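Priority: medium. Attachment 1 of 2:
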């Protein structure tokens, strides 16, 4: 049997990227599940044999061929026999830059992935690319990650992605996988390319159907705004991305792609309260108190700080909000009327806000 390092680890080394998050993936040619188990590897793959190294716990997959038998990325049958060659295994990978193998310092590049790395090209290995809808999302994410290197999508690959959208193959994407790729893209410094690629091939209206007719899915300047945020927290960028959407549309989207609660809550709060925050001095004391109550500013302080970070990225002056928050958080409850403490606290907060508003006039 022969073992080769494949995929991202080889690609990133050739690009000069030192990223501790890039996992090492290995392909094993000329072996079988029984032989791998005899060597102490632990099998973890159900659909096709993937094994964990007994020492490093890195993934070792048997070289395989695959045949499309149904919709989606799970609709495949696999051949992992000893007869499968390295080139056959590489031929079923998504992009040429991910179809390079290495063994003992020697590179195996049957699909000219190094040329595409040098030319900054994201190009499919074969038409089998169109059999797996996840590859559309992955390519869009790679476009975001490698935008700094000037990578572009090959024209032939772009046409193939458009065909996948037209055929309905993209509709087979699972919500969890959409969110996973979206979250990764938002963690990069230049996520705009992710949305541009999806928009260019028409996949955006399929994976984010409730946002399909809104301006930010078609205007490049809205995408580029995300690249200028200087903040790589995907939760923050998610809320900024959706700040012009209605709370209802955001809730629909988050339910559709199964977002974690923190993503949903921050995005909805941003949508609901950015106008109040941007026009604080024009609001009534009652409306401002409602803002602090509905955002749960005094109890959920960390989330409120994230909300203020989002407002700042949107160009909203938050210093007055911080000052008010501090005053409301330090009310001397012991000095208030105990006969109806809830009403007394409410009136004290309104008084503090009214005095603050008067001081700004």
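Attachment 2 of 2:
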């Amino acid at each position: 049997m022969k073992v080769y390092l494949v995929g991202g680890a080889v690609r990133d080394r050739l690009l000069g990227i030192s990223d501790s998050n890039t996992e090492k993936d290995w392909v094993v040619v000329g072996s079988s599940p029984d032989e791998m188990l005899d060597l102490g590897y632990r099998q973890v793959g159900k659909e096709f044999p993937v094994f964990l190294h007994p020492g490093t716990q890195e993934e070792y997959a048997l070289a395989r061929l695959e045949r499309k038998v149904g919709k989606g990325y799970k609709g495949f049958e696999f051949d992992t026999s000893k007869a499968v060659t390295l080139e056959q295994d590489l031929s079923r990978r998504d992009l040429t830059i991910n179809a390079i193998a290495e063994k003992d310092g020697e590179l195996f590049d049957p699909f000219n992935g190094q040329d595409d790395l040098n030319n900054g090209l994201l190009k499919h290995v074969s038409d089998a690319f169109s059999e797996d809808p996840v590859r559309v999302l992955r390519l869009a994410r790679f476009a975001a990650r490698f935008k700094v290197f000037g990578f572009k999508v090959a024209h032939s690959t772009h046409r193939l992605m458009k065909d996948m959208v037209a055929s309905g193959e993209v509709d087979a994407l699972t919500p969890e996988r959409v969110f996973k790729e979206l979250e990764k893209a938002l963690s990069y410094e230049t996520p705009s390319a992710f949305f541009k690629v999806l928009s260019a091939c028409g996949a955006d209206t399929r994976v984010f159907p409730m946002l399909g007719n809104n301006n930010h899915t078609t205007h490049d300047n809205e995408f580029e705004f995300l690249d200028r945020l200087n903040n790589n927290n995907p939760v923050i960028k998610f809320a900024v991305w959706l700040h012009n959407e209605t709370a209802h549309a955001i809730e629909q989207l988050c339910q559709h792609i199964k977002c974690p609660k923190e993503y949903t809550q921050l995005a909805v709060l941003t949508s609901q309260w950015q106008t109040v925050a941007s026009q604080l001095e024009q609001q009534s004391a009652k409306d401002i108190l409602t803002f602090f109550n509905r955002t749960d500013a005094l109890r959920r302080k960390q989330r409120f700080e994230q909300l203020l970070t989002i407002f700042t990225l949107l160009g909203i002056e938050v210093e007055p909000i911080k000052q008010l928050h501090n005053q409301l958080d330090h009310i001397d409850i012991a000095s208030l009327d105990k006969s109806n403490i809830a009403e007394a606290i409410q009136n004290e907060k309104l008084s503090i806000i009214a005095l603050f508003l008067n001081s700004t006039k």
